[in-house]
Amino acid sequence: MPPHIHHDEELSSDYTDFRPPIKALLGERYSELSIAIAKFLSLYLVAQISGSSSSPVLSDKLRYPSFMRVIPSDIYQAQALVRLMSHFSWNWVGVVYGDDDYGRAAYQSFMQDSVGKICADFEKVLPHYLDHVDIDKHVKDVAQTIRKSEAKVVLLILKPELVEKLFKEMIQTNTSRIWIASDTWSMNRYLTKMKDINKMGEIFGFSFSMGIAPGFEDYVKNLRPTPGARNDFIEEYKQLRLNCALSPSTCAVDDLLNTVDLREAYRERVAIYAFAHGLRALLKCDENACSGDTNFPPWQLVESIRSVNFTLDGNSYSFDENGDFTDGYDLIMWKENNDERIIEIVGKFLLKNGDVEILNQFQWISNTLSKSKCPESCPPGTAKNQSKISCCYNCVPCGEGNYTDDWDQPECLKCRDGLWSNKGDSKCMPFQEKYLEWTDSYPIALPSDHLCRAQQAVYGLGFTLCVSCILVKAYRTFLAFMAFDPDRQHTLKNLYKPLINLVLLTGGQDYTDFRPPIKVLLGERYSELSIAIAKLLSLYLVPQISGSSSSPVLSDKLRYPSFMRVVPSDIYQAQALVKLMSHFSWNWVGVVYGDDDYGRAAYQSFMQDSVGKICADFEKVLPHYLDHVDIDKHVKDVAQTIRKSEAKVVLLILKPELVEKLFKEMIQTNTSRIWIASDAWSINRYLTKMKDINKVGEIFGFSFTMGIAPGFEDYMKNLRPTPGARNDFIEEYKQLRLNCSLSPSTCAVDDLLNDVDLREAYRERVAIYAFAHGLRALLKCDENTCSGDTNFPPWQLVESIRSVNFTLDGNTYSFDENGDFKDGYDLIMWKKNNDERIIEIVGKFLLKNGDVEILNQFQWISNTLSKSKCSESCPPGTAKNQSKISCCYNCVPCGEGNYTDDWDQPECLKCRDGLWSNKGDSKCLPFQEKYLEWTDSYPIALLVATVIGLVLVLISFIIFYVHRNTTVIKKAYSTMSCFMLLGLTVSFVSVIMFIGKPSDHLCRAQQAVYGLGFTLCVSCILVKAYRTFLAFMAFDPDRQHTLRSLYKPLINLVLLTGGQGIILLFWLVFKTPFRDLKWPDTGMIKYVVCDEGTIVGFVVMHGYIALLAFICFFLAFKSRKVPHDFNDTGIIIFSMLIHLFIWLCFIPIYIDRNKTNQRHIVQASAILASNYGIMFCHFLPKCYIVLWELSENSRALIMSRLARRINDDTANANINVVNEDGRTTPDSGIFCLGVGTSIREISTVSIDPSSTTPTMDLFNADRGIINPTVSHHARLGQRHTTRN
């Protein structure tokens, strides 16, 4: 099974080795069919290659492991569409999409990629099926929307049949737009030949990379039945595509070519080539034959096709990790050609750079296309005043002293000191000095400080004096002719003092204020009414206080200076909704909103505030009016979308009547979700009493801060007309709210109380208290009286109310600078209560901290709610690997040295110095120190081996000492053997120093003890090898004499070992080994090891030992033909080979274990192996011989074996006797070159048994020992040599 193919359940061996006759499938065209087939084929891993199925779902290799396609995924089509619109500066477009999986997915991708770049003036949906009962009505409705819209560009994500219907409707009304085609119809040739298609306007779109298959056109032209035959497939195809009869005479054969787009068919050619290349590689084909097994399991072909990389028509093709091609799209334009259109490639969208590129020969297109922008571009001298819709803004002229020098600037810049600009200027200029010169038509002198003061003073006093005189004269006339009341005349006459009046009027001015009888207005409920009334009241600055009008427009104090409200602006409701969803970890939701000003504005605010936090799985719109002809159908469509969606949370920005209809539809299908209510229906009491309301699921929402007005409930209960009177207001209210007749007997009085939410009325109480506190402050009231003037101008009350700060029912209230309350919202939950719901406050959203707070007694809610997330939360130790959808991601484990200590972290944090973490850890920990502890298995094994070695050394020493007079021991040169045992002892002891926690002194001792000990041992072997070399290989007398002078055993031993001592001394002095912490760049363990200080010292020490070992090997190898009884050459060769082989293997292993404590294990193991090599070669065999085979190795037997070998050698030898004076004479016998007192005689076996010449024992020569018991030997007075 290939490694990239995974399944949740392990496939049985039957499926793995399944070998069907069909090895691959080409197709399908549509994603819906490909998905269904891919699910089946993936069970058996049969390869499927599509040339047009572009659904992003098919990129999921866990679900569709054997599916491949030679086109990109649709996730890139949305990017291409957004880039196209941005390239031509279109940011105000319309969107029409089909109500199927393809349409909704493409629409969703486009809306997500277009956030902040492209805005939709309208979004309309058409039924997917052409036989829908109201399809024509829906098409007309969409056409009417397009005609009314100011958007000049319309994106159609529809199938060709729906596009044809829509185009016919647009042609009838002669409506032209710029159309953007989705890939489903961008290449449809039938539409290019529609009647009057040229009236539609420009058409652009994207298609998958196209080409022409050589010879395919001729093949289609010649495709006809053979004479006398009939091909029903061709006829049926013509019938479906051309709508002609099945008779062959009805349609010409060439018509078949007109229905096939040769360039579109090119993708099928690419798919076939991909399959062919994969099959060729699998079957190991060359130009002549294929050697592979044709009965292969299909998954092998999947692997082979996925790995192809081939070139076709100059283009290179290969699959990515998802089995998709990622080359890009062709930008096409439907170019007018007589009465039809032809499709022409005018540009490219390449995925590698992610931008639209127009071909050079079509650069003129940009200059001919209409603009489609929400506002026109803002010229220099203006700045963009952004609205709530990201693409829309007003161009506001820069004020004086400000400027912009480019188009579409976000804000005006201030002029530098010394420069200034007029309103709307695009640059700042130096000030011009201007005054009324004498040469002007109105001449005056150059202004000066005194003249400036005199100008206003003279004018003010002079003209006021004139007007005051006129007023005195008018007042005199008034008294004379108008004062018909004598008492009043007398009073007014007292005020007539002409000169005094003149002085007073000239010295100061009196302003008369507007003082209406109505000082304040409470209301309205709806923002639309409040806006209209506020415009009027603001002319006279009469205060207006509303308890429910929440439109953000009313916060504009320039337009509505006297308006105030005791609720927050709607701009905070969207924030509250987003915070609520984030609090409960809901980031994958559905949105349903009404098609009215309130619904669209709230939806737009929510989408803007939710960017990067909350993602919408679907966005559906419902008609605002209940009497809409298709309201029930739209509601059912929304309900079906909710049921199909994986989102468990749905936000409903609807009025209560629409919510009721939707809930009834959900109850019928027993569908439960978590519903988020907008403030339009969050506290609607009628909905709480719906039948089966408990089946819809949990309901949350926000309402303005609520409370209970004391005594209001009793007042409502007792609200009835006085005896004999009639209250039409109450009756009309009951008729509107309860749908009962106007007769008082029809509805009980208590019903009125049931239809009023006492907590909702609480806001009116707060508004009255705000007015009362403002009036109290203005009139300077205490507990008893008010000292202020009650006939005050209303603007004074506005200022007084705006500055109030009062406490009511434990809550503090005040207005902000915009005249709004900023207390926040109550979070409410519809709690089940028998067969209905009751509204309960479970939390708060306070604007001061901007977060949702759940009350303590309702903290359990979080544990009972379902999760609604695009991706599961990433646990500590992982980070989010973001996908193209901001709410969707994969959880990637943090690498070593990184961590996350909380859920859903965007990236891993680095550990601080001294701390580390393993892959996927949620915290950093200090490193653990690791070394060879005495209780570990490896150190115990080393210790056991060391003890055994020391015991063997001790036993060998005892045996050698006890049997020191035997021939075998004497032959082994017991002095050097004892030094060897001493060196081995020291070397074994050094192994123990590698165990335990290293220290600086222990690190130095490890190398020094081993180096000296083993060097002593090897030096002893070298002395023994050199002795054998002198005795048996020095056949040249002169050279023998020279070499013999170098043989000083003890001196040699001291010098050779001392050389190592000098090396170690330099090493320890200049760069000594030390204790160090080694970290292998991974894991939590730092190894406490001994650093060599310098690798040079380490290499030289071991190199010196290796050099001595090699010399031993060389000398022993040269002496290898000497009789075995008289030398240890074989033992020396074998032991030195063991040593050199061990340390040769040691080098790469030691280097590889550079940062772990295994270096100590490797070196200690190498030391033990070398020591045991010496022991098993040099000592244990001799101990065995001494203890168990001594009789077979007596002196007599050894000499007998030697004599027989000499006789064998001399039988075929020419022997010359070399006298001591240098002459050579023939003789019988054999003689090796003398070595002075070291070797005096080699005994031969005499033929005469009576011969009793005493001889010096070869093996005791170094000690000068003479054995008097030896007989049957002849002393040789001559030196013999053998010449072959």
TrEMBL record:
<keyword id="KW-0807">Transducer</keyword>
<dbReference type="Pfam" id="PF01094">
    <property type="entry name" value="ANF_receptor"/>
</dbReference>
<feature type="transmembrane region" description="Helical">
    <location>
        <begin position="1129"/>
        <end position="1151"/>
    </location>
</feature>
<dbReference type="GO" id="GO:0050909">
    <property type="term" value="P:sensory perception of taste"/>
</dbReference>
<dbReference type="GO" id="GO:0004930">
    <property type="term" value="F:G protein-coupled receptor activity"/>
</dbReference>
<feature type="transmembrane region" description="Helical">
    <location>
        <begin position="1050"/>
        <end position="1070"/>
    </location>
</feature>
<feature type="transmembrane region" description="Helical">
    <location>
        <begin position="974"/>
        <end position="996"/>
    </location>
</feature>
<dbReference type="InterPro" id="IPR038550">
    <property type="entry name" value="GPCR_3_9-Cys_sf"/>
</dbReference>
<feature type="domain" description="G-protein coupled receptors family 3 profile">
    <location>
        <begin position="938"/>
        <end position="1202"/>
    </location>
</feature>
<dbReference type="InterPro" id="IPR028082">
    <property type="entry name" value="Peripla_BP_I"/>
</dbReference>
<dbReference type="Pfam" id="PF07562">
    <property type="entry name" value="NCD3G"/>
</dbReference>
<protein>
    <recommendedName>
        <fullName>G-protein coupled receptors family 3 profile domain-containing protein</fullName>
    </recommendedName>
</protein>
<feature type="domain" description="G-protein coupled receptors family 3 profile">
    <location>
        <begin position="444"/>
        <end position="489"/>
    </location>
</feature>
<dbReference type="Pfam" id="PF00003">
    <property type="entry name" value="7tm_3"/>
</dbReference>
<keyword id="KW-0675">Receptor</keyword>
<keyword id="KW-0732">Signal</keyword>
<keyword id="KW-0297">G-protein coupled receptor</keyword>
<dbReference type="InterPro" id="IPR017978">
    <property type="entry name" value="GPCR_3_C"/>
</dbReference>
<dbReference type="GO" id="GO:0005886">
    <property type="term" value="C:plasma membrane"/>
</dbReference>
<dbReference type="InterPro" id="IPR001828">
    <property type="entry name" value="ANF_lig-bd_rcpt"/>
</dbReference>
<dbReference type="InterPro" id="IPR011500">
    <property type="entry name" value="GPCR_3_9-Cys_dom"/>
</dbReference>
<keyword id="KW-0812">Transmembrane</keyword>
<feature type="transmembrane region" description="Helical">
    <location>
        <begin position="1008"/>
        <end position="1029"/>
    </location>
</feature>
<keyword id="KW-0472">Membrane</keyword>
<comment type="similarity">
    <text>Belongs to the G-protein coupled receptor 3 family. TAS1R subfamily.</text>
</comment>
<keyword id="KW-1003">Cell membrane</keyword>
<dbReference type="InterPro" id="IPR000337">
    <property type="entry name" value="GPCR_3"/>
</dbReference>
<dbReference type="InterPro" id="IPR017979">
    <property type="entry name" value="GPCR_3_CS"/>
</dbReference>
<dbReference type="InterPro" id="IPR000068">
    <property type="entry name" value="GPCR_3_Ca_sens_rcpt-rel"/>
</dbReference>
<feature type="transmembrane region" description="Helical">
    <location>
        <begin position="938"/>
        <end position="962"/>
    </location>
</feature>
<keyword id="KW-0325">Glycoprotein</keyword>
<feature type="transmembrane region" description="Helical">
    <location>
        <begin position="1095"/>
        <end position="1117"/>
    </location>
</feature>
<keyword id="KW-1133">Transmembrane helix</keyword>
